[in-house]
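Name: MBL fold metallo-hydrolase
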Amino acid sequence: MSGAVSDHFNGKTFFNRDHVNRTWRDVWRWRRTSRPTPWPKALPAVVVPPPPRPRVGVAATWIGHATFLAQAREVALLTDPHFGVRCGPFDLVGPRRVRPPAIALADLPRIDAVLLTHDHYDHCHLPSLRALVRRDDPVVMAPLGHHALLGRAGVKRLVELDWWQELVLGNGVRVTLTPARHWSNRLSGRRNGRLWGGFFVRGDDWTLWDAGDTGYDAEIFGQIRQRLGAPDLALIPIGAYEPRWFMAPQHCNPAEAVQIHRAVGAATSVAMHWGTWQLTDEGWDEPPRALAAARLAAGVPEEAFRVLQPGATVQSKRNPPDILRF
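Structure predicted for MBL fold metallo-hydrolase:
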């Protein structure tokens, strides 16, 4: 089906070392006791043209939520492309977007490859993928088990990876699927029938790590640094974390995001997964405020873990050689 039996696949479903899934009883308890902070119905729109490719390193432009345009001399990548209004089945139900994408899909440069971290509706938007396939026919990289789902979007050049597997693109860029502490589910397919993860990308003079959706796990992030080195630029989630009793196994909070930043040794990290859809109970602008407090408590400079406005771009800084790699 999706791969050989392993320490995270039992022949039918994928799993984490520690329990992540919540039961319907847990969901009912959350909904019954939840007191979410109201979000605005709309935030000021910011729509910008895509920046030019950098001559050196890699540059990441935040389009919204977990969608980034990552450009280097060799390649243009798009992470978890979602340009729709809702994140839910059929684009008819689910949270409504409070801020439009900072770059319109039609204005994107030609995309060479898409990095799809998992199947949840706020990350895997089939209409966006369908439009990209029709326009650019990019290579789509996804964790194991996504073939049937992405076939519905017309994806022809799909490469499925298991944790720690690597793909070398035609331009010499190397992409490795990294573990994450999460889960998968949507209306089609069984719960945890598709794998989840992040992506470590290595170019000629740069490295980029997209953490994907993840709870905190000291072992996972230490392994990423040991196996692949410290990334020059890391994309780390900071939102969708309240209430902690429910969300902690699957979504890190800002303090844990700072721990992840330090564990992987990123030269620069960028906050993602906040301020686009109200998925959980915290206010729309609470994650960056909590991140600022967590940075201060950990002694991490503001420029080392950046909060971007939609449409803003951050350029990688080259990490020195990591002694953990030798």
